[in-house]
């Protein structure tokens, strides 16, 4: 893994781009500090130089782990990462469903009771995540990226693509609805 990461860093550093991109390592399970710590401590112990990384990215999906994918765990993880690794942190992937008939099986009740499955719920979700990211100590929280704004379940109803929910679509049938939600998220 370290050789692969080092090769990626070298590729960015030797590129001929007029502006050098920031280098980010992105892991899933943004609610799980033990996973993040294990990964980063392992690559460091095996010779990876963390000074070559500018940003740590994490995913925050509410439907991955009913027992643990809570906002409290997401916040704790980000604070622990900031304290230990002192890198910028971005929530590189998230979404909130608009339709989720299996929510009781997949999403922590602490979330389903606060965020409706609707466009309004999506706005509330992103604003809450943004507040958590903004509160990371040392001003190390760098932002939230909404991943796959056109997510719908596949035609066969398979859950193999990661979501147990039917729709996380972030746009609507009328342009005015989408503009209103986009404006609300930018406030």
TrEMBL record:
Belongs to the glycosyl hydrolase 53 family. The keyword Cytoplasm does not apply. One of its GO terms (molecular function) is arabinogalactan endo-1,4-beta-galactosidase activity. The keyword Hydrolase applies. It is an enzyme of class 3 (hydrolase). This is Arabinogalactan endo-beta-1,4-galactanase. One of its GO terms (biological process) is pectin catabolic process. It catalyses: The enzyme specifically hydrolyzes (1->4)-beta-D-galactosidic linkages in type I arabinogalactans. InterPro entries: GH, Glyco_hydro_53. Keywords: Glycosidase, Hydrolase. Pfam families: Glyco_hydro_53. Coiled coil: none annotated. It comes from Venturia inaequalis. Its EC number is 3.2.1.89.
